Amino acid sequence: MPTGKNFETHVEKEYLKKHPKSRALYERALKVFARGVTHDARFFKPMPIYCVNAKGSRKWDVDGNEYIDYWTGHGALILGHAHPIVTEAAVNQAKRGTHLGASHELEIEWAEKVTHLLPCAHGGLVEFTSSGTEATLLALRISRAYTGRQKIIKFLSHFHGWQDYTIIDYNPEFSPPLKGAFPPGIPEGTLRSVVALPPNDVGAVEETIEKGDVACVILEPGGASMGYLPTYKPFLEKLRKVTRENDVILIFDEVVTGFRDAPGGAQEHYGVIPDLSTLGKILGGGYPGGAVTGRREIMEMLDFKDEEEWKYRRVRHPGTFNANPLCAAAGNACLGLILKGEAHPHVNQAGERFRSALNDAFEDTRVDGLAWGTTDSIIYVGFGFSEEDLKVSNIQSYVEFQKKKSMNMEPISHLDKAMINRGVHPMGSRFILSIAHTEKDLQRTAECFEESLKELKSEGVLEKFV
Ligand code: PMP
Fold this sequence. Notes:
The longest helix has 27 residues. About 40% of the residues lie in helices and about 15% in strands. It contains 15 helices and 15 strands. It is of the alpha/beta class. The structure holds 4'-deoxy-4'-aminopyridoxal-5'-phosphate. 4'-deoxy-4'-aminopyridoxal-5'-phosphate binds next to helix 5.
């Protein structure tokens, strides 16, 4: 069993041997970036791989290694890397100008596609931002302005970007088990305006709403961290009922699930329609972009009106890169293909088969583990998890789930290295699929997964899970 000493296992030695140029770049990066990387999730010991190009389901690193990629642009690339139609649209637009300092037709087309695809946007309005984080921030502000109330409800472990309100994963009522989940740098007033509840606990939502001053509830409709901790349809239905009956705005953060679970996102998949949705990732076709969309009367908080009083009520939203033409061109091309039905249901069916292949690998190697996913095209693997563990609905089951999750940190990091050594790049414990992942890619990945489990078993890394 590794003791935390560096590069003890064969897997780690092999990883270092295969990536000398990545190691050299990481040493340079440490001189200019705190933690050496530019996104917390890309931090990886002993160093991350550095990539130079990507196409379809593949990418290549500076040491000349090829990978089947499952980061898939953090979920943005449902069409795969550098899809020719999206690339052509972006390149053509880049030649015509990346910022026109004016309104343009592409932004209208882009918004029309959003209102067409997403159920909550039918007959509604769209506001573009530059990222998913900005979209969730704006949705909360609009909700507060519209209702005149202060508080927001979020769920523990649900991720909505790095802005102050939703990065909070702390609730003093549940302390001490969750102590320390309150990140520094957030003002006290902001902390007090957010109530973080156990996932899937509709009773806790009702109690909090009864206390008053709740503007909105925001959640990842497919479950926390891209569906790692799943959400279930009956919960979503109850949540819809409770929020509607109390005039509380329901926000589905569809930054991940939008255009992925179904062309119309999780709301189409589950048949539950929120008041507002936030979008990002696939929306921009692999280029930066975000949006808030939903009911017209709520979105009209952004409108200008010739009323003296209105200027004190309206929500402001400037932003240099809002709906910039480059991202609008790429986003339009991507959503155009989704509208034509070129991504679904293919990507979902492939995901379903892939998930069973990973579960077969656990069984064949007699490793205690599970592959799951609330959307078919994002698959998780975890050691020591059972289907029962995924049914979190109160603080006790949440704390148990978190314990299992933390036991997975070290083995998953070894698994990733073993997979990378074999030419597969998982995103931690997650595999994100695109239409570019072929049956052969997925079969090869399942084989690598099984080989990796065997290797980790023989190295004693999975001691607790065999
Ligand atoms: N919401 C969800 C559900 C996300 O997964 C993310 C990013 N992974 C965000 C919001 C933030 O989006 P961005 O990284 O574009 O700011």
